[in-house]
Structures are given as structure tokens and as C-alpha cells.
Amino acid sequence: MTISGFLIIILKLAVLFAALSVVVLGLTWLERKVLGRLQRRLGPTRTGPMGLLQPLADALKLVLKEDIIPSASEKAVFWVAPVIVVISAFVIWVTIPGSQTLVVQNLDLGVFYIIAFSVVGILGLLMAGWGSANKYGALGGLRAAAQLISYEIPVIMVVVAVSMLAQSLDLRVIVEEQSSYPYLLVQPLGLVIFFIAGLAEVGRTPFDIYHAESEVVGGPFVEYSGAHWAVFFLAEYINTFAIAALTALLFLGGWSGPFLPPVVWFLLKTLGVVLVVFWVRGTFPRLRIDQLMAFAWKALVPLSFYNIVVTAVYQFYGWPAWSLTLMSLAGLAGVGYLVYRRMTGPARRVAQVRARQRAMQSRRPPAGGSAAVPVPQPAPTQGQG
After folding, report:
1. Torsions phi, psi for 78 (to 5 deg)
2. Helical axes 262-281 vs 188-201, angle rounded to 10°
3. Cα gap 316→318, rounded to integer Å
4. Strands (DSSP E) along the chain, which ranges?
5. What string of DSSP letters covers 103-138?
6. What are the sequence ranges of the domains in the chain?
7. 112 φ, ψ to 5°?
8. Residues 133, 73 contacting (CB under 8 angstroms)
9. Does residue 204 contact residue 274 with C-beta atoms inside 8 Å?
């Protein structure tokens, strides 16, 4: 590579980082507005017109806030951990295309590259918890690693199924193969698995257990403040935007669409997925750690393997596309029914207990009175007639 080519790559990366920083500021404002509307509030309104300057005020506050480093912490590990997390979130955007030509560096194994580098963020979370010299931070780091490793498996399996359909790991080829119909129509199960597991990967509600921001102590970031904490915050929103973009590319046809420019279609589809992410945050409560892990290993992992099997059967026998849709919907409906029965089980048991109590009360004699109780007659003895 020549010096000029290297400088061009550096310039593209700088522009990409600046663009993602602006996107993060926009997402923080949009999330507050959406959650405000869902909760019958206004959201930010004071700082700038419609509160548009609120993200800048928050960023300035975090940069100027005192950055405290625990005296017993491992200084090098404490400093490097947020850098690893944000770099792993940033470098995957090198090969995520916004259109056929709008990409920093397209790779033939682009999907493999994205999956490989997204896992590196787990190391940063572990280092953050360990380097803080705080037992709660260390437990939070281990809890985060367990969650991310568990939900990484469904994400990888769904990406493999999509790559099987497109016969390529190149994101541009995957989008081109959806020119006739988006993969949403033939793999609705894959879309649901990818979206749910993606929420867990970025720690969004209801899978934000390793952030635990509403608790007094929790998560691997408990000792971080100021600019260090802001870096973790930046990585979370970059990852959120990445999951939304990958959902649009893998299942919604990417930049395909009539009339509008390709980049506009890509941004509109990505924004639609982001709004659903915010909607989920304003709707569902946080899961417990046992519920979170059980849902991964008992529901999403088996479903992801089922998705691989039905995709392989569909391709091997050359069945029509609607057959894959039916098999995908059958798996989705079956597991959805089982999850529904599991979630509503406690309520059903309570209803049954109350019904039995009402039945027993209805058979009791009325209060303040005595019921006519038959008195047993003595059996006749010999000689009585």
C-alpha cells in the first residue's frame, strides 16, 4: 500500500468515527424523546430548540466531570478496558456498507470479520471489572461475559443461515440476493432470533443486567466516571446502531427500495429498527440473571440450530421459498407458545388456587346460622322391631 492510499484509509476512518459520534448524539436525543412519548412525557425541551442541544450538554458534562481512579486498581488494565470496548465497536463499521459504494473497505468475508471483532468487546468488559479492584465490578464483568458468550451463539448461527441462503459472506452480495424479496419473508424466525440476541449483545433492555444502571452497585463499570464511563456509553450506542444496521442488511434488503437514493433507504430501515429497540426499552422490565441465561440456552440456542437445519433442508431439496417460510413460522409459533405458557404459568396456578378457595367457601355453612346436619340413627339391635 502506498503512502497516499494509507492516508486515504486514515481519512475515511476519521470521517467514519466523526459520523458515528454524531449518530450517537442523535440517538441519545431520539431515545429520550421516544421514551418520553411512550411514558406521556415531553423529553428534553430546555436545552436548545426541542432539546436538540441536550446531548452536547451531556457530553460536555461527562468530559469535564472528575475522572476518579481507585487507588487499589490495576491502572493499565483500568485505562485500556474502555479503549478495547470502543475499538471493537468501531472497527466492525469498516466493512458495514451504507450502499453499494459507501463503505470504508469491503471484504469478501465481511460477516466473519464483524463477528470476530464484536467478540473482542467481551475482553474489555472483563478487564474493566477485574482492573477496578472491586468485587462487585469483578462479578459484573463475569456476569457480562457469561451473557455475551451465551447470546453470541444464536447471532452466529443466524448469520450462518443467512450466508447459506446468499452463498456468500459479503454483505453487498447478501443485499443483492434480496433484490427479489427480503430474507424477512423466508426467515422470520431468523430475524426474531437475531434481533433478540442482538439486544442482549449490546446490553439493551430487557437484557441490560450487566449494566444495572438503576441499581446502587452493579456491572463492570461501577468504579468508572467521567470520560472513562462516557467511552463505555459511546460503545453501547455504536453497537446499538450496528445491530440495527445489520438487521436491515441481513433481513430487510439493505439499501434496496424504489424512488429514494440507496443511502436514504438504508438509513430509514436502520432507523426503524432503532425505534423498535427504544420501544422495547419502554415496554419490558429487566430479566433476572437466571431468566436471561435460561432463555438463551433453552430457547434461542435450540431455535438457532433449528433455523440452520430447515435452511439446509430447503436448499438441499430445492423446495420453493414459501416452504422455508412455513417451517420458520412453525418453529417460531411452537417456541412462542411454550414461552407464553411458561411466563403465564404462575398466574394460572394462582387462579387455580383462588378458584379452589372460592369452591370451598361456597360449600361452608353461612355465618351466624347452623345448617341442618343429619344425625346418624343408631343401628337397630336384636329384639327391636
Report:
1. -60, -40
2. 70
3. 6
4. none
5. -SS--TTHHHHHHHHHTHHHHHHHHHHHHTT-HHHH
6. 8-64, 70-343
7. -65, -40
8. yes
9. no
pLDDT value of position 381: 57
Place of cell 412453525: 330
Q: How far is CA 91 from CA 83, 120, 331, in A?
A: 12, 11, 35
43 close to 35: Cβ distance less than 8 angstroms:
yes
Distance, in Å, from the CA atom of 318 to the CA atom of 321, rounded to the nearest integer, reads: 9
Give, in degrees to the nearest 5, the angle at Cα 213 between 280 and 36.
Answer: 45
Q: pLDDT category, 227, cuts 50, 70, 90?
A: confident
Task: Give the model's confidence band at 214: pLDDT under 50 very low, under 70 low, under 90 confident, else very high.
Answer: low
- The three three-digit cell numbers of residue 49, written as one number: 430548540
* Residue spans of alpha helices (H) in 132-181: 135-166, 171-176
Buried b / exposed e across 55-68, counting CB within 10 Å, b at 16+? beebbeebeeeeee
Q: Closest Cα to residue 308, out of 198, 228, 190?
A: 190
| Bond prior to 206 in cis (omega within 30° of 0) | yes
Record the cell numbers describing residue 218, joined without a space.
452493579
Q: Residue holding cell 463492570?
A: 220
Q: Specify the DSSP element, H or E, that contains 344.
A: helix 321-363
Tens digits of per-residue pLDDT, 282-322?
888 888 888 889 999 989 999 999 999 999 999 999 899 99
Average pLDDT, the chain: 87
Grid cell, residue 92, equals 466492525
Q: Kindly list the distances between the CA atom of residue 122 and the CA atoms of 62, 247, 311, 333, in Å, as whole numbers in the listed order.
A: 24, 21, 30, 32
pLDDT band per the 50, 70, 90 thresholds, residue 369: low
How far apart CA 378 and CA 30 sit, in angstroms, is 85
- Which cell numbers hold the place of 281? 426499552
